Amino acid sequence: MLADGSRRSHAMKKSIWLICIPLLLTGCDFENRVPIEMVSISRTQTMVGEKSLESTVSFDIGSLEIAGEPTAVSLYSFYLEYDKAGYNPDIQYNTALSGTEGRFSFSLQSTHRLGIRRERQNNRLRLAFTESIPLNLKVTTGIGDARLSLSGMRISRIDFESGVGGAKMSSYEPNPIPCEYVKLKNGVGAIDAIGLGNLNFRELEFEGGVGGANLDFTGEWKQNADIRIQVGVGGVNVRMPREIGVRVETQKHFLSGLQLEGFTKRDSYYYSENYDKAAIKVSVQVATGIGGLKITWV
Q1: CB neighbours of 11 closer than 8 A, spacing ≥ 6?
Q2: In the prediction, which pLDDT does 114 show?
Q3: Which phi and psi (to 5°) does residue 27 adopt?
């Protein structure tokens, strides 16, 4: 049984909520203050002698699609649909090195005027890059799905960081040029990377978050490579072609699991059965967290 003081305190708190809730609901009509205003813009940048392209894409919220552009006329093109009342695009292009290096930046960020709304509209960006010249690409996403289709593109370097939502990166065709560095980082959502072997990379780094990851290294391998994998909370599944020789070095966390089929331990390393005879060799450094890592041969 409650004491008199406790009953009075409980009654007072209840009265305050009964008074404040209607005021909050009636006094904060953000829908009328900041109405949704969906608009769209598109742009194409003509190629005028650029020999390479460096691009930075930051997309706070919405659906993002990036693919190659087969025509040799345009350097890049995009179509953006967004809520003008809540977001602001910042799009810039310039050149360096006497016009031979193009620099393209795209950012869509919140204006912090969203408030509370009954309806939600999804920002959408479709971005296409030329397949004619080398591309150094950095992509950072916030909330939403992201799809990067790199088939046909000349990727010299790529840095892809996903936030909350699903992310997929694929390369179904061999990269015509060597890729110096690949970095993948996922946040809360899962990430699927398919055909990583086609990227023709020298160095790949993956940093896991809460979501799980599927790293598929199938494709046309042309050189030896170094891979570093930092496992987060979500586990990492690695698919590796049988003809690739793999050496694994790991620091195993006591909460994590490491599943290596067809490997033999020598000193502090794990070697695949074909390692000594393989034409292409890959070194994998694994730092495991709570999630586990599994390598499957395909």
Answers
A1: none
A2: 53
A3: -90, -10
237-248 per-position pLDDT tens digit:
999 999 999 999
- pLDDT for res 225: 98
Spatial CA neighbour of 169 closest among 190, 138, 146: 146
Question: Is pLDDT at 289 greater than 80 in this prediction?
Answer: no
Kindly report the three-state secondary structure assignment for every residue of the chain: CCCHHHHHHHHHHHHHHHHHHHHHHHHCCHHHHCCCCEEEEEEEEECCCCCEEEEEEEEEECEEEEEEECCCCEEEEEEEEEECCCEEEEEEEEEECCCCEEEEEEEEEECCCCCCCCCCCCCEEEEEEECCCCEEEEEEEEECCEEEECCCCCEEEEEEECCECCEEEECCCCCCCCECEEEEECCCCCEEEECHHHHCECEEEEECCCCCEEEECCCCCCCCEEEEEECCCCCEEEEECCCEEEEEEEECCCCCCEEECCEEEECCEEEECCHHHCCEEEEEEEECCCCCEEEEEC
Q: Is the model more confident about 120 or about 63?
A: 63
pTM of the model: 0.84
Whether 233 contacts 289, CB under 8 Å: yes
Radius of gyration of the chain (CA): 25
pLDDT of 30 over the 60 cut: no
